[in-house]
Amino acid sequence: MTNLWKVSTDTFVNEKESIMRMGNVYQIANGYMGYRGTFDEFGPDELVGITIAGIFDRVGDSWREPVNAPNGGYTRLTLDGSEISALTSTVKKHAQNLNLENAVFNRETIYEANGKTVTVNSTRFLSADKPNLGVIKFSLTTDKAAKVKISTGIDCNIWDLNGKHLVNLKLEQNEGALLVHAVTNELGKKVAVAEVVDASFGKATHEVKDNRNLHVIEVDTEAGKTYTFYKYFAVFTENDHVASVNEAAVKAVIEAKNAGYEKCLSNHNAEWAKKWAYCDVKIDGDDEAQQALRYSIFQLLIVAPVNGSANSIPARALSGQVYKGAIFWDTEMFMFPFFLYTYPEKAVELMRYRIKTLDGARRKAKTESIGFEGAFYAWESQDDGDDACTYFNIGDPNTGRDLRTHFRDKQVHISGDVAIAMWEYFKLTGDDSLLLEGGAEVILECARFYFSYAYFQKNKNRYEILDVIGPDEYHERVNNNAFTNMVTKATFEIANATVAYLKEKHPAAFTTLVSKINIEKELPLFVEAEKLLYVPQPNKEGVIEQFDAYFKLRETTIKELKAQMIHPNEYLGAGQGLAVPTKIIKQADVVMMLNMFKDRYPKEIKKANWEYYEPRTEHGSSLSACAYAMVATEFGNIDFAYDYFMRTAKIDIEAKYKVYVGTIFMGGSHPAANGGAWMTAVFGFGGVQSTAKNVVINPRLYKKWNSLQFNMIYKGDRFKVTIGQDKVEVIADAANKASHTFVISGQSLDTAPGKTLSHAAGAKSLA
Amino acid sequence: MTNLWKVSTDTFVNEKESIMRMGNVYQIANGYMGYRGTFDEFGPDELVGITIAGIFDRVGDSWREPVNAPNGGYTRLTLDGSEISALTSTVKKHAQNLNLENAVFNRETIYEANGKTVTVNSTRFLSADKPNLGVIKFSLTTDKAAKVKISTGIDCNIWDLNGKHLVNLKLEQNEGALLVHAVTNELGKKVAVAEVVDASFGKATHEVKDNRNLHVIEVDTEAGKTYTFYKYFAVFTENDHVASVNEAAVKAVIEAKNAGYEKCLSNHNAEWAKKWAYCDVKIDGDDEAQQALRYSIFQLLIVAPVNGSANSIPARALSGQVYKGAIFWDTEMFMFPFFLYTYPEKAVELMRYRIKTLDGARRKAKTESIGFEGAFYAWESQDDGDDACTYFNIGDPNTGRDLRTHFRDKQVHISGDVAIAMWEYFKLTGDDSLLLEGGAEVILECARFYFSYAYFQKNKNRYEILDVIGPDEYHERVNNNAFTNMVTKATFEIANATVAYLKEKHPAAFTTLVSKINIEKELPLFVEAEKLLYVPQPNKEGVIEQFDAYFKLRETTIKELKAQMIHPNEYLGAGQGLAVPTKIIKQADVVMMLNMFKDRYPKEIKKANWEYYEPRTEHGSSLSACAYAMVATEFGNIDFAYDYFMRTAKIDIEAKYKVYVGTIFMGGSHPAANGGAWMTAVFGFGGVQSTAKNVVINPRLYKKWNSLQFNMIYKGDRFKVTIGQDKVEVIADAANKASHTFVISGQSLDTAPGKTLSHAAGAKSLA
Q1: What residue numbers bound the domain in which A92 lies?
Q2: Which of A507, A624, B268, B576 could make an S-S bridge to A619, C-beta 3.0–4.6 Å?
Q3: Does residue B93 have a pLDDT over 60?
């Protein structure tokens, strides 16, 4: 049987694309930084990347993107004077694995040169308890006595998409540690990497060569004897708010060396044990699904922001600089629910990030197009909340020209997505501190933005939301997109509810806020807008038109459309894209809306829209499949849901995704799909939905599954839920503070602390 | 000195493109039909075309376009058995001319074959008094005795862009006349062409061969002797409302033959003398300008609709099927003023055409996009007022794909253009019959359309017009286009004025109309909309932003832009066109607005906008230069105005225009530019502006001109105006019914019938 806690391979393919994809699959991260799954001896050409969360830089007119740190994990050997590298040497044998339990990457590679072999075994992790720290255990064994030179240290040759981001780079030695420090090109932010080696053999010297700061250890090896050394590296930036990033980095590695490898690892493991204790989902009876889902959850856990950082998770997480390291709606709509249900202290960081960047959203509202009021969140948000999305965000391989896309200026649903997540946090945790610490301000500013964006149609006596892009990005600048209008309406509802709540519970804070943002006169308008905002309704057949006049677009098939492509990477949207005049959509749009607002629509409407839109959906986004899967579970198409669940859950473990859109490289991991896999399991097959009042569970397990087990947090209390084919069991943690209502398959049950509910009506009765 | 009444050449270039361009320059027409300036022996490959006004047909999915008639002017010779044709024979000498005085085309060509020459002299005209009739005098002379066979008759091989439009084609003989009759493919409309020959030599037989219905006349010529015959052809369609198109056609040619060539010609000439008596403009001191302007006026006169036809003038007039023979805003904004000032009975037809097609405009409003109220006139209007414009109106030579353009669905200013012309007719003629016969209904339905199209912005307390294309078609789907908003505002003003006028003067008609179109409740909304409609205002520098956020577009130069073109015919607009993200505009837009609404803006604003927009204008439309020229005269840039006037006036006589936009052939004549040339002369250099109250003349003659003389009609009375460098003379016709006020260079003067005003302050004092 496969080890469902490990991802492994015994193959190394010496090709650029394979190395790129493996770098994604075997990446490790700890929220502070990511480290791609590359070999110790690799460099920028093999896309070695240590991507730091929350620090960005821009060079010239190029895209602003996250900063990659110099590689403190670098080690290269020579064997009897010959360079050893998987790229140029003979690899006799290779095996590598990633332990999902604790995010430890290990590989063992046997290289051959000059008739001798050297076996390298390298284990590395980014500390879960000390987020600035990386630790590596490196062993080598030659089959015959040999002269081995180990060059290990910090490689300052950095893989950048739009670098060079680090300037004034200094390579130094400091108290036995190597130190590299620099400042970012744009804002002059300090960055330091320190590294120290603990080796009990050989003769060590210091060398700076080829932009690398190195220890050189020379050793005459005995045949068959294993030589092990330990590396500790630390990354600090000015965002860490330490007195000196240089000193902090050096201190961190020396402390780690003094503590020793085993201690570092055990502290790290203890943190990981806590994570999994609450975040794992167990699928009994389907190992493939189990491993894919666990890997998806793992991907979310490794990139969850460091507590107190007010960072969020970029669309390609920490797997590199793709998509500018920017935060999209993906985070709120696809990742946030996982954290909200299992790891609220991380959900808080995601929301704090939006509070932190509220001023950026205000700046964007003021300056975008004709200027608007309130908060228009960035489509691609970085550290300051200004929009990293360009107006020409995709290249056209047919003409070599950049395409004007309207992602940045028209994808206005982002503000509502933020407001909805903010309110969802309050609703499901019962914790109003976030509202008081800026969340309410975010919500009101989002409503204010929509009001300034909305138009009133006098003949129809209604507000409309014009000229937007919904989730289906193939159709730009559409009017009354059902998804966007619904999100807008929800934002007005939430703003009005926020006002009512604060007035009642926190009148002083309410007065302060209203005066701070001078919004009193506008509040009645939000009430009117909630009432008079137009949301497209189902037609006779139950289908909701995606946007005004969508039904008039040309009917075609995806196959027919693709047959017209001139270039295989040609983008199907933007201005004159092939999909634009047709009904073919990029991803779930109306169906995504039905999933987000599932309470408001009956099963038949979900079914009608699902059946209408699914064949017209190209699934050109990794966000699409899980939305269709979740809605499919609602009306009983469980087999379909399972296929799309698997497609979503396996995206990163299989790494078969496309890596180009137009001329833009977009390879990397897919945390939104990872979150979508978790949602499909728990919300879809588990049928779980938490509301302000209660937790509803209407299970519809996939037939192959014996049971689905997960933990969830509701209003601060913890539950272990097991859904079998014939029964649902809910164990309320003994430490819970209150009793809550679970409505299981229609029956209201009470979950007092420490109590176990067992409800016989299980999945079968409802599937 | 050149004969300023003739256009001539002694060159024949045997190349397709030259033949195409010459076909335009030497075309004749009489409002009922056009006949391209091609040789008697030419066929469809040389773009021989007899395009009939007001009858359209569609084949399959192709564009609907005007019907070309079988060519009743066809004649081909053989000389001693050898085919004679300018395409295949040696042309020893050739000369051709077009007489602008009477629209008679003549050519003399000496062909050589088998060591002999034959001189052909052919003269043709389309009767100005009998619009169905064409007349040809054909002479031939051989230098040596020879056997000549003349095949003359009706060629049914028709040049069509998207044919074949005529089906059930029958080639017959009837009472000595040849008859071809058929029905149109789409609507089954009957079309007949008859032809009769009057030849007093040779032996005649009848032959039907190669889809031609022919008389064959064989003659053994004597050397040097001239053989002359006359051809009469007539075209009738079901639109003529005759009992039988076949009989009417045959009757017409027999009657013409009986009357004889000279009689036909003298009747024709008499009509032409009347036209020129009132429509000519004399420029003293500038022959080049004189000829170009006269040629422009000639172009308008030949295509002026037949009285009572309720036809209008297509964008390429009757020079072929280009632009689908459709009527655009060009007619109202660029041609209509010429007719309104000089030939009101033709201006009436243009307006009747819009009344006739009101139902089409209503259909379009209802069905376009999400559906609107009122009348949304077709961007490309044919016989029924439905829109001939497609959603994919331009091909992209880079990809071979059709481009989605929004000309049809977003160029909403067309309705206002119609309403403005309708009102202008009433204002300047004082004749309210057109209003009562449907004009008022048109106006109110246009206002109704705009109200249903408009949105109200609550924060700004104003109506806005969103998502349109202004005259600058390179920028599609813009908001608050200054031109469109102003036209919309004017439409509401006109609607409100119409209501006030009818209420006062024709209360019963008003009541009937209001009840017929059920508009009473909406009338107060039009008053509110007039008041609260947003029209972009000048900024600090006096510049009016062309549309929302235009100022944020990329600054570039036309040269820089064109350097990026991949294909020379590449369209610069639509979706991803090169001009779209830049400030480069296709044609006068704000400046066109300033020209149309010149009363509302001071000179400094005109200057500021002219100076801002002119360098950013690509002049990709023949409508552009004259707008810039006219506004330039207003603030004293007379030299520039002259250059652009000449560019406009010479467009068709020089025929150097581009003939492709994208992959679309658009060669043909430019009646809008012809009208623009007249406007630039009279309104620009003449400084004439008629208002409801008076006629204002603020002359600013070009320095080279000694004087500018023209006739004009105001409130049904006639005036001859002569503007010299130092004086203005206005002669009121003795038959005038009333006295009118002329404000010349600021001085109010009275023009009693028969009186001559002479005002010493002329151009110089104002230039």
Answers
A1: 6-277
A2: A624
A3: yes
